[in-house]
Structure formats: structure tokens, C-alpha cells
Amino acid sequence: MTARIYVKLKPEVLDPQGKAVSGGLRNLGFGGVKDVRVGKYIVLDMDDAIPVTEAEKQVKDMCEELLVNTVIEEYEFKIDH
Amino acid sequence: MTARIYVKLKPEVLDPQGKAVSGGLRNLGFGGVKDVRVGKYIVLDMDDAIPVTEAEKQVKDMCEELLVNTVIEEYEFKIDH
User: Are A43 and B7 within 8 A, CB to CB?
Assistant: First the structure.
């Protein structure tokens, strides 16, 4: 079972890495880019024996306890069985 | 128009950050996690005037020229119009 977690900074939090990437893209001639945000993409390989509802609960707990700084970041996740 | 880019290390490349996260999750009691890979999640806000086929080409070029180290990383992207 695979859980894919997408973590990004909250919209009101400044993203210096995104700003740097945005500037880099413009310098390379990609003028159509208005804004860039850089976050984390975490892929968890989980034991298939765990029921999906239990896995969802566990992934939520993992995010809140370790993977995501909920003060400045927000997250979504998907589980493929 | 929003382009979402998911970058991860190629499967054969060692991921020390993923290993550290995996160990951390196990220490917190999440025993069902077999493997963790940590990648990047990049969200581009692009000019709506660009046709989707052109945007797809541009995002591919951005990935290969700046956003992704294609020697060790692989990527996928989605564009929402």
C-alpha cells in the first residue's frame, strides 16, 4: 500500500525557495510563470495488512506528529491500495 | 493555470532523508511503514493565456532545465486549467 503526501507552505507564509525558482525560470526565458511554491512530496510504502481506514488514520497522525509543521505548512494525502 | 510537479529520487538512488524519516516514524510507534522516499512538490502558477499543449511543453522544459536533476531524479506533472 502506498501513501502519497503533498506538503506545502500555507498561502500566507513567504516561500523564499519558490521565489528563487521563480526568478531562475524567468531568467531562463519562461515568462509565463506567475508564482512558484516549493513543498515536499513524501511517498510511504506501508504494510498491506493494515486496513485502509486504519492507514488513513495513521498517515494523518504521522503528518501531524512528524512530517508536517502544521504552524506553517498544510498537507493532503492519497492512499493507493 | 496551475502546474503541479512531483519530483522524486530514482528508485536505485539512496535516500538518506527518507531513511531518517522512516526511522523517526518507527520510533514514534508507526511500525507499518516499510519505506519512505522524500521528494519535492512544486506548484507553478502560470499565465492562463498559454494554451495547454504549449504549457505542457514549457513545464517539461522547466523540469529538464532547472527543476529536476534528471541524473538522479524522476518527475511527473499535472496541469489544471
Answer: no
